[in-house]
Amino acid sequence: MKHAIQYSTRMKDIILLSLVISVVMFQVATLTEYSYPVLFYMQMVVNVVIVAALGIEAYARLVKRELAIPTDGSSLNIHGQEIQAGQIREIKVSGCHKATFQIQLKGKPTRAMFTSFKFEDKNCLGIQELTDWAERNQISVRKIGPQTRAGMTLSSTRTSS
Q1: What is the pLDDT of residues 49-87, one digit of tens each?
Q2: How many angstroms separate the CA atoms of 72 and 136, rounded?
Q3: Strands (E), 28-150
Q4: Cα(17)–Cα(148) distance, rounded to whole angstroms?
Q5: pLDDT for 132-157, tens place per residue?
Q6: What pTM, to 2 d.p., does this model score?
Q7: Is the Cβ–Cβ distance between 127 and 119 less than 8 Å?
Q8: Is the sign of the CA dihedral 117, 123, 129, 134 positive or negative?
């Protein structure tokens, strides 16, 4: 079955941090009542970072991708690229309501934008199908992040609930 997915980015954090740095630089300039040329150049760098982050976020939101999960096969198809179950070391899940999935491949450096995604559907059908597919193919699904205990697998939490 095919599910719509979107890129998982941390651009909101980068934009927030850039704005905080910008406010701090403004406060330094107003409290000292002196114009520091280095603050001007730092502000330009912050502005470039914000514009780049907004561009990446717009790209991540506008490009529609899909994940095809076969009911009986041993491969995933992420936006036209096929990944065999034997290539996957584990699937990491981070978050609760709008969880981010990251596929860890065996021995290959991967692009984070390719292997990290969130499901767009609100009814969690994609999450259920992905975890069922991982169980059928003996791939560990591990929850990570501050909301989980270290090393807890998603399949063990599903059977206990």
Answers
A1: 888 888 888 887 777 778 888 877 788 888 778 888 888
A2: 9
A3: 65-68, 75-78, 81-84, 88-94, 100-105, 116-119, 140-144
A4: 26
A5: 888 888 888 888 876 555 444 444 44
A6: 0.59
A7: yes
A8: positive
Q: What per-residue string of b and e applies to 11-40 under the rule 16 or more CB within 10 Å gives b? A: beebeeebeeebeebeeeeeeeeeeeeebe
Dig out the tokens for 115 from the structure. 């292997």
**Cα separation of 161 and 156, whole Å?**
9
The answer to whether residues 7 and 116 touch, using CB atoms and an 8 Å cutoff, is yes
Question: d(Cα 115, Cα 105) in Å, to the nearest integer?
Answer: 9
Measured between alpha carbons, how far is 100 from 38 in angstroms, rounded to an integer?
Answer: 39
Exposed / middle / buried, residue 141 (Cβ in 10 Å: 0-12, 13-18, 19+): buried
Nearest to 96 by CA among 130, 127, 138: 127
Q: Give CA angle at 51 (63, 104), nearest 5°.
A: 50
Three-state helix/strand/coil letters over 3-35:
EEEEECCCHHHHHHHHHHHHHHHHHHHHHHCCC
What's the rounded Cα separation, in Å, for the pair 43 and 25?
8
